[in-house]
Design goal:
With 362 residues, this protein is α/β, with parallel strands linked by helices. Helix content is 61%, strand content 6%. Bound molecules: cobalamin.
Length: 362
């Protein structure tokens, strides 16, 4: 049985991960058909499940499962299940859709895997199934308190800034940010305490279908320009002689957050380089080889990007061993699971750019 925090599984990491990767597409297709196959005359109905599982739900769950097994952490799979169930409950949906996905994957893996690996995988799935119906200890923990601890006075003007971003009013946005800097607040604090919540507000309005994707894109473009201006003028600490590489992991197109982390390290005296979003395992390993950084920062925004983050961490560890960089993780997907960094073998985690600088020193 896979247990607790980063205890190794009995099966070899590479072979279990390889097996689960090799059967991933078949598992998803079989589970998908299974979920929607009428059983004993009972047809699934949205009203019964609250929300019908999507194929993406099955894909993400299968990927997270493979990652949890390879990393030797049932806790990670359980925390993933709880976060999805909690998110769906907030939208008024019962947890049955998640249960249906896990049960269908379970039926496939019970048949398809060699017995020893099947026993391991089923034990992780069963822990997940158990978590669907029984609330347990909070393995992730709310992040809001931690962020609040690290920040001083809250900012006013978040809604006004969100409105300005959405209206494309760059002058108004610039004024709001400059006023905050003029009032004596450091640039990093202004970026994380004012611009970041304004972008979260934009995301929230998109989720509520109050704005279109195009409006969201436009707001992001204005925010990126304002961030560049904010940091161009920021006073910089004396160089620390330490280098950092920051990247969004494979599949993560949310680049503003990790870029802001790189900027925050930069003004704190680090030589920080941002590799952009959607970085592949090979690209990150090649850059680590070329730059030999002291710190590698990886960002994931959505749950299905965490397995890619794990792959990068594993490959960097395998390639560079103890000569490799310290690895910290962050991004929205990690903010819903405060212990994730331990489960996937990183050295630390931080919920925003301000606390990231405090974590790594600067
Ligand atoms: C802008 C945006 C986009 C832009 C991104 C453009 C760009 N160049 O960055 C685009 C249009 C590409 C996009 C696409 C999508 N998005 Co989007 N997007 C957003 C939005 C509105 C803002 C993101 C942002 O910039 N936030 C501001 C930054 C500063 O905050 P942050 O990313 O959290 O970063 C901070 C911390 O997390 C932390 N951190 C981040 N990385 C790291 C790394 C390290 C090492 C450390 C220590 C810390 C750290 O520090 C950062 C700075 O303080 C969010 C809403 C939100 N709540 O975030 C949705 C949001 C993230 N997107 C969402 C979704 C669903 C999508 C899409 C699937 C659909 C869509 N909307 O088109 C695609 C998926 C793209 C992909 N494959 O990644 C959802 C994700 C839901 C979820 N958790 O599953 C959100 C939450 C919107 C919502 N409310 O539903 N998106």
């Amino acid at each position: 049985m896979v247990t607790g925090v980063r205890q190794e599984t009995n099966s070899d990491d590479a072979s279990s991960h390889g097996w689960l990767d090799a059967v991933m597409d078949s598992a998803v297709s079989a589970a998908w058909k299974d979920i929607y196959r009428p059983q004993a005359g009972v047809v699934l109905h949205p009203a019964a499940l609250g929300r019908l599982p999507t194929r993406q739900d099955v894909v993400t769950t299968a990927r997270v499962l493979a990652c949890a097994v390879a990393a030797g952490s049932t806790d990670y799979f359980v925390a993933y299940v709880r976060s999805i169930v909690t998110e769906q409950a907030a939208r008024g949906a019962p947890p049955l859709a998640m249960a249906a996905v896990i049960a269908a994957l379970r039926r496939y893996y019970a048949e398809a895997l060699p017995p020893a690996l099947a026993a391991l995988v089923l034990s992780v799935l069963d822990a997940g199934l158990d978590a669907v119906s029984r609330p347990g200890p909070d393995l992730s923990g709310p992040v809001a308190a931690l962020v609040a601890e690290g920040s001083a006075e809250p900012f006013t003007g978040v809604e006004a800034l969100a409105d300005a971003l959405l209206a494309g009013e760059i002058d108004k946005g610039r004024r709001l940010l400059r006023d905050a800097v003029g009032a004596g607040r450091p640039c990093v604090e202004v970026a994380t305490g004012l611009l970041q919540p304004a972008l979260y507000t934009v995301g929230h309005r998109w989720q509520q279908r109050r704005i279109t994707v195009a409006e969201e894109h436009g707001a992001t473009a204005v925010a990126a320009a304002l961030l560049a201006e904010l940091f161009a003028d920021a006073p910089r600490a004396a160089p620390l002689g330490r280098t950092a590489l920051i990247a969004g992991v494979t599949g993560n197109r949310h680049a503003l957050g990790p870029h802001l982390v790189a900027d925050a390290l930069d003004v704190a005296g680090w030589d920080a380089r941002f590799l952009g979003g959607d970085a592949s395992v090979d690209a990150v390993v090649a850059e680590v080889d070329r730059c030999r950084p002291d710190l590698l920062g990886l960002s994931a925004s959505m749950p299905d990007q965490v397995p890619a983050m794990y792959r990068i961490i594993r490959q960097v560890r395998r390639t560079f061993g103890s000569a490799g960089p310290r690895i910290v993780i962050g991004g929205l997907a990690t903010n819903h699971m405060r212990a994730l960094w331990r489960w996937i073998g990183a050295d630390g985690w931080s919920p925003d750019a301000t606390t990231a600088v405090a974590l790594v020193g600067g």
